[in-house]
Design a protein that fits this description.
Blueprint: H1 16-37, H2 46-67, H3 73-91, H4 97-122
């Protein structure tokens, strides 16, 4: 008798807008971290750079998980939302244009992730 493998559940949804928002956020974070490293006094920017790098990696991974329709992608978006919130808060404390752009991208991504996993809970 054949043992049945547990089914791989694909949502069947295309997430182009959310994937693009995640990629846009990751790009803004990478650009912000790079620009922070070019500031005259890098020391006050250390926490910003750390959060930029973490947020970029998390958003890139979130986009990749959605692209391959991973079973854990929707759960992972909760982590993306948190990373974006923390990064937006930190970048929002700095006056540099790159920090302001990053904070805006992070807030958009935070909201998109929140809306997405909120919709998943309603199903």
């Amino acid at each position: 008798m054949e043992q049945q493998q547990p089914g791989h559940h694909h949502s069947g949804h295309k997430h182009e807008a959310l994937i693009q928002t995640l990629l846009d956020c990751a790009r803004a974070c990478e650009e912000c971290a790079t620009a922070c490293l070019d500031e005259k006094d890098v020391t006050p920017m250390a926490h910003c750079i750390e959060l930029d790098r973490d947020c970029a990696e998390i958003c890139f991974l979130g986009a990749k998980l959605l692209l391959r329709d991973s079973e854990i992608s929707h759960k992972f978006l909760v982590i993306c939302e948190e990373a974006c919130r923390e990064c937006a808060e930190e970048c929002g404390m700095h006056e540099h244009d790159h920090c302001k752009r990053c904070a805006e991208a992070c807030r958009r991504c935070e909201q998109a992730c929140h809306e997405h996993h909120g919709q998943q809970q309603m199903k």
